[in-house]
Specification:
Strand content: under 5%
Distance between the termini: 18 Å
Number of domains: 1
CATH architecture: Orthogonal Bundle
CATH superfamily: MetI-like
Order of helices and strands: HHHHHHHHHH
Length: about 270
């Protein structure tokens, strides 16, 4: 008798199992939307696919008379620019601090408590402070994402580096390696896959912080557009924007996964069949 624990689906089975819940949710939405529109053809809470298609046509293919730009393209460009800048700064800072805190006891004693304290502060709570200090421009939005992601990523990477077997450090020093050589030749290669994985896990909160900042103070961006049209109950615009944000997040996650697997294949052993 085969145990459920040992049942491994085929490639086609994995694809079906992955798509089935998504298709079920889509079908559930279509049924609910049709039912609501049967009772009230003017319903705006669950728009029909046709209504969302018309909204997408306007937002993605027609230029805004006020700005001369296509709204979806302008919003996507602005949001990705902010997100990209914040993620770049967070990743670079995490790599430097994570290696230092994880490898060197002096840095761990001096910076570890500070990073741990900042990591538990809700980033959205300091958003008003950021707007006061940096104004309503791009800096405050990027700073919010940076503050929200970096301390958590640093703690994760530092813990991973600190867990490197001590014998590796001792052997490298025995062979004459300096602190920099141990850092670059022993710790860095083992830290990079973990850094990419930490960045992947940080994508969801990064989008949350970005949308929160854009909703409060912005004149362009995906979060700005969602909160702009919500006052009109424009779910035919909001839902496609949410789907678009989800697709962008999935694409970023897949790109990071492929980067990790191609550059650090040794960190991704194939599971036993």
């Amino acid at each position: 008798m085969r145990r459920l624990l040992n049942v491994r689906p085929s490639r086609g089975g994995r694809l079906f199992l992955g798509l089935a819940p998504i298709l079920a949710l889509v079908m559930l939405y279509l049924v609910a939307s049709a039912a609501r529109h049967a009772d009230n053809p003017a319903d705006r809470i669950l728009p029909t696919p046709a209504a969302m298609g018309e909204a997408v046509k306007v937002m993605a293919f027609q230029a805004d008379p006020r700005t001369g730009e296509i709204p979806l393209i302008a919003d996507t460009r602005a949001s990705l620019r902010r997100l990209g800048a914040a993620l770049t700064l967070s990743t670079a800072t995490t790599l430097i601090l994570g290696l230092g805190i994880g490898l060197m006891p002096l840095a761990r004693s001096g910076l570890g408590p500070l990073v741990s304290a900042i990591a538990v502060v809700p980033p959205v709570a300091v958003l008003p402070i950021l707007f006061i200090v940096f104004g309503l421009g791009e800096t405050a939005k990027i700073a919010l994402i940076f503050i929200g992601l970096t301390p958590v990523m640093v703690r994760d990477l530092a813990g991973h580096v600190a867990a490197i077997p001590e014998e590796q450090i001792v052997k490298a020093q025995t062979l004459g390696a300096s602190t920099w050589q141990v850092l670059l030749r022993v710790a860095l290669p083992q830290a990079m896959p973990r850094l990419i994985e930490s960045l992947r896990l940080s994508l969801c909160p990064a989008w949350v912080y970005l949308i929160s900042a854009e909703a409060i103070a912005a004149d362009v961006g995906l979060g700005y557009r969602i909160f702009l049209v919500r006052r009109y109950l424009a779910m035919d615009v909001i839902l496609p924007y949410v789907v678009w944000i989800s697709l962008l997040a999935v694409a970023m996650d897949l790109a990071l996964s492929l980067l990790s697997r191609s550059a650090y294949a040794w960190a991704h052993p194939r599971p036993a069949r």
